[in-house]
Design a protein that fits this description.
The protein is mostly helical. It has 13 helices and no strands. The two termini are 26 Å apart. Pfam families: VCA0040-like (PF04018).
Length: 282
C-alpha cells in the first residue's frame, strides 16, 4: 500500500530542492524520514522494490507537484532580479553550515584530515568558479549533443548530492551553470512549450541514474566514514559561495534588496538547521 501521508513531505522536499541551499536530504532529515528515504532508494532495484516504491512514489509525486508549481516564481526572479536572487541563495547556503558543524561534532571528532578535506572542497569550487564563463540567457539554452550530455551529467551529480544532508541538487546545477536553464525549461514546459523536452529528458535521465548509482555509495560513506563525509560537505558548502557569487549590486535599491534577501536566506536555513537538532542524525 502506498504511503500517501508522504505526499506533503515530498512537496516540502521539492520546494527546498528548487532553491540552492537547504537540500531535500536535509528536509528528509528534519521530517524524520532520512534513513527510510535513503534505504528505500537503495532497495528500488532489489527484490524489495514494491515496499520501496510504496514509500518513494508519494514523495516523488509531492516533489514533482512542488517543482512544477513553483518553478515559474523562481524563473521570474532569476530573469528579472538576478543579483539579489543569488545573494538570497548565498544566504541559504551559508545558513546550513552551522547545522553541519553541529551534527559533525567538530570539536570532538575532527582531526587534521577533516580540515584538509574542508579546505580541499573550498579550493576545488574556488578553482571551478575561476573558469566559469558568463552564463548565456536561459532562453538560449543549447540542445546539441554536447549540451544534452552536460545536462545529463549535471543531473546525475545533482541527484547524488541531493541525497546528502547539506548540499542541494539545485546548488550543483547552479555551480555547473545549468540551474537557470532547468528552471526556464520547467517553466516553459508548464506553459505547454514542448521544445524544451530534450533538456528535461536529459536532466531527468541523469537524475534517475545518479539516484540509483549513488544511494548505496552514500549510505556506505555516511555509515563508515561519517565525519569525513561531513567534512567534505562543509568544504563544498563554503566553496560553493564562490560559484554562486554574482558580483556586487549596481544601485542602492539593488543593494538594499540583496542585503535583505541574504539575511533572509541565512535566517531561513538557520531555522531549518535549528529544528534538525531535535532529531537524530543519520
Amino acid at each position: 500500500m502506498f504511503k500517501w501521508r508522504n505526499l506533503p513531505k515530498g512537496f516540502l522536499m521539492g520546494i527546498v530542492e528548487l532553491v540552492p541551499g537547504v537540500s531535500s536530504g536535509t528536509m528528509a532529515l528534519l521530517l524524520g524520514i532520512y534513513d527510510q528515504f535513503l534505504g528505500a532508494i537503495s532497495r528500488i532495484v532489489s527484490k524489495y522494490y514494491k515496499q520501496a516504491l510504496a514509500f518513494l512514489l508519494p514523495l516523488v509525486i509531492g516533489m514533482a507537484i512542488a517543482i512544477l508549481t513553483m518553478s515559474s516564481v523562481l524563473n521570474y526572479f532569476l530573469q528579472n532580479h538576478t543579483i539579489p536572487t543569488h545573494w538570497f541563495f548565498m544566504g541559504m547556503v551559508l545558513g546550513v553550515i552551522p547545522m553541519m558543524i553541529r551534527i559533525s561534532n567538530v570539536k570532538a571528532e575532527f582531526r587534521i584530515i577533516h580540515f584538509i578535506l574542508i579546505f580541499a572542497g573550498i579550493a576545488i569550487l574556488f578553482i571551478m568558479s575561476m573558469f566559469n564563463a558568463d552564463a548565456l540567457p536561459a532562453s538560449n539554452a543549447g540542445m546539441a549533443a554536447g549540451d544534452l550530455l552536460k545536462y545529463f551529467i549535471t543531473g546525475a551529480l545533482a541527484a547524488s548530492m541531493m541525497l546528502l544532508p547539506g548540499i542541494s541538487g539545485s546548488l550543483v546545477m547552479l555551480i555547473m551553470g545549468v540551474y537557470p536553464i532547468v528552471i526556464y525549461a520547467i517553466n516553459e514546459f508548464t506553459s505547454l512549450n514542448f521544445t524544451v523536452l530534450p533538456i528535461l529528458i536529459s536532466i531527468g535521465l541523469g537524475i534517475v541514474t545518479g539516484v540509483l548509482l549513488a544511494s548505496k555509495v552514500i549510505s556506505h560513506f555516511l555509515k563508515n566514514y561519517t565525519y569525513l563525509t561531513y567534512a567534505a560537505i562543509i568544504g563544498l558548502l563554503f566553496g560553493s559561495v564562490f560559484a554562486i557569487y554574482p558580483g556586487l549590486p549596481a544601485s542602492g535599491t539593488s543593494w538594499f534588496l540583496s542585503v535583505i534577501l541574504f539575511l533572509s536566506g541565512l535566517f531561513i536555513s538557520y531555522i531549518f538547521g535549528k529544528q534538525q537538532n531535535k532529531n537524530d542524525t543519520p
